[in-house]
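Support request, please re-run this one:
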Amino acid sequence: MARAQTMDAPLIFVLGDPTYYGRFGFSAERTGELAMPGPYERHRLLALELTQGALDGACGTITASGRRKRNERIRAA
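Re-run finished. Output below.
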């Protein structure tokens, strides 16, 4: 979340447990008009607006917008 804020990202999406991520402000309340490629449980598509109104009028399929650095590794949780 801190990295997204330093990058001026307007929002963050996660696909996860609403009970866990809800404590950080993530919610499925405004993701009903959004979709992702592949199978997933709709109630697990969560968003956190870092900029108020970032999801206003949002609809359609979510696609990746960032790019990892070539040598950056994904760390397992």
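The two ends are 15 Å apart (CA to CA). Helices lie at 2-6, 18-22.
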